[in-house]
What does this fold into?
Amino acid sequence: MSHTEPPGVRDVTRAKRSSERITKADISRERVLTAAARIFSERGYAGTTMRAVAKNVGLQAASLYYHYRSKEELIEAVLDMGINGVSHAVHAAVAATPPGSSGRDRIDIAIHAHLTSLVRFGDYTLASRRVLGQVPAHVRRKHVRLRDAYGEFWIALLEAARSADELRSDVDLRLARTFILGGLNFALEWYKPQGKALDDVARQFSLLIGDGIFAVPSK
Amino acid sequence: MSHTEPPGVRDVTRAKRSSERITKADISRERVLTAAARIFSERGYAGTTMRAVAKNVGLQAASLYYHYRSKEELIEAVLDMGINGVSHAVHAAVAATPPGSSGRDRIDIAIHAHLTSLVRFGDYTLASRRVLGQVPAHVRRKHVRLRDAYGEFWIALLEAARSADELRSDVDLRLARTFILGGLNFALEWYKPQGKALDDVARQFSLLIGDGIFAVPSK
DNA sequence: GTCTATACTTTGATAGAC
DNA sequence: GTCTATCAAAGTATAGAC
It folds into this structure.
């Protein structure tokens, strides 16, 4: 199983208790958000017009303002989903690791969870990746903080492995972290569900990150 | 030596024979291009206005049209510099490898050249990375082709190493290639010349790509 | 909830003076 | 080469009807 359910109304209408009914507004709001994520990721922040988003869901531009107060609020909602989606998924997966697991096991699990949630929240994570730098400064600050916190989680993962003497002694943790995340995140740009199963990609990446590309008696 | 000269008028006014004088137009044209690269990379394609670029070099918006016929032509010039700058630098560095070099030597040299030229052409490569997807379709097509050709060069590098039996047998070449380029290119987003010397970063990445992060008797 | 109508701003680009 | 002046098109957002 490499693909989980994509996010739906339930995930998107945050904090709605399961007893409450899902209203027409919830549905529209979610359709708008989905369309916005895709269009923001394709055309950038300034290149995305309220008219284009509206047209995509069969509404007039003015109607979007019933669901979101402004374009800024719309991109904020998209960025939230992208960054939190991945971050929560990876935290959860690592937390669910059996007690005796090695650092390497935990890192492999993080790689797998990162990759699958990246793809699961495809348009949202793509939008985060591509427009974070183009967004009004006060919006950007908050999400840069979230992203950095996630980065620190990876440092902790690597540090744990180092403490258990699993790492080569000459590895620079922060450089390794950025390299790993750079390589994984790039998958967003090229991975297509029709191709290789995502589980296989994750396995290959684990191998690459763990052991490199060269045969052992190489150096 | 980790930083080469940044590109100047000579590089930018393409195909101008060294006997010809550099005109006032050449200077303005280059200043416009430099500013455009930075602003495109910061604000995206649609978010960059001709007025903003002009203001940045102390001109009126209308004056830009003396140097570039349109916004499209301007972004094309920026993308050209970004993609060709890196591609040419890496080709040249690998071509200059001594005859007996191993596949690993050549890959290390490519990593170093990729990283240094990435940083040398900073704003241009950043612009390519960030706005390629936002640009009018016919502009994008050409540059996607260039980028893909560069990717194939890396496949050839890896294939050569495989033929010499230097690679672990279970490495998927195309996956390894995208992972490596993803990790290297991400450096664009965080590398600051004030920090660690770029040569050291390149060395770390070579180690990471070659041998991974885990100590040898780990698996 | 979604519409039509519209106010106001900013955009890429051109014309023609200097 | 660069300027001022200007245009038509497109942008965000609001008001008020249904």
Summary: Residues 24-25, 28, 59-60, 62-63, 66-67 of chain A lie near DNA strand C (CB under 10 Å from a C1').
